[in-house]
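Q: What would this chain look like folded?
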Amino acid sequence: MTRQQPRPAVAITGLGMITPAGHDTESTWDGLCAGASTARRVPELRGCEVDFACTVDGIDLDAAIGGRTAFRMGRYVKFALLAAREAVADAGLDPRSWDGTRVAVVVGTSSGGSASLAEQAVALDRRGPGATSPAGVLLTIPNMPAAEIAINMRATGPSMAPCTACSSGVTALAVARDLLTTGQCDIAVAGATESIVFPVAMTGFARSRSAAVARPGDDPARLCRPFAADRLGLVMGEGAAVMVLEREADARARGAGPRALLAGAGATTDAHHPTSPHPSGAVAQRAVEAALRDAGWQAGDVEHVNAHGTSTPLNDATEAAVISRVFPHRPPVTAPKGVLGHCMGAAGAIEAGLTVLSLQHGVVPPVANLDAPADEFDIACVTKTPLYRPIERAVSHSFGFGGHNAVVALRRA
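A: My prediction, written as structure tokens:
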């Protein structure tokens, strides 16, 4: 691979998360390193073909949001706002004192407020218009996470809501990086959010044969096993991750020590099938290679791969082939969905954030429920316990329905 002149790296100065493993970044990281799945039976899914998922529990979202505005926010919006608040505080910034005209918000989602839409449809059908919420539209439209963050933080620069299915979070980070490097903002609050654990969606994934279906006696916590020979399908998750991005020189000028640097990004589209990846993986591979070129790296520079790793037969086989072709030196691979489930539109942002933490701490978390990758996969998955080693450069993959492929290259600060 020929090196090209890289664009200036962008500093990641703040990170916030809310996931099935924890209500903030630190607890999510601890849960991931512990390597135990968060999947459980969900009472609201009783009677569905898939009645389990990885959910965010043990938090009163309305109380955490505070004030009088939570009524107009869907669950996915609340996730995004809480993650954004943590990220901005982590960056050492105060929205009350920044120049909001120079702050962008880029927060993606895949399904938006489809759960709220389903609830409103049931209320309308059963009890009539008076039973629906006056905030019904606000509870459903996918731009509301970006909008509510901008309102809450007085950010009047560009505001966007990318939707590229499971790649939405990485797309958001790439768009935010472009806004910074082209001078359209000085600070970007970027990430993604998702809340899709409700009967209609879960039934749809089961019917499309994307989801793992439990057999009698199966433990839901054992069903998501990325890259395993006996993998069954995805297990749904939910949550959000948001980062604060700044030009590196600006961050250092204000005394902020970056968590990591976003060095490159790449994107392609399979143009093959609505749900299945192209079996050759050639187009997804071009996205990985584009991110490396954008960063000015050779493939051999990469010391860790955070894989998309959905635990579906086709996706894992395609991705394993891509990893082995691009990275024949076999860098350590992890796949967070074994712990967190597939957080859909939020997955790319969450996993990029976890890659940042791997760079910071010199730790690659294990793939949950995996003893060893399938024999046909020539990749070095970390299993059972975390791998401790210094990491300078890593990539995080996201491959979504519709053939959307997005990859970020991240470097230790």
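The first helix runs from residue 25 to 34.
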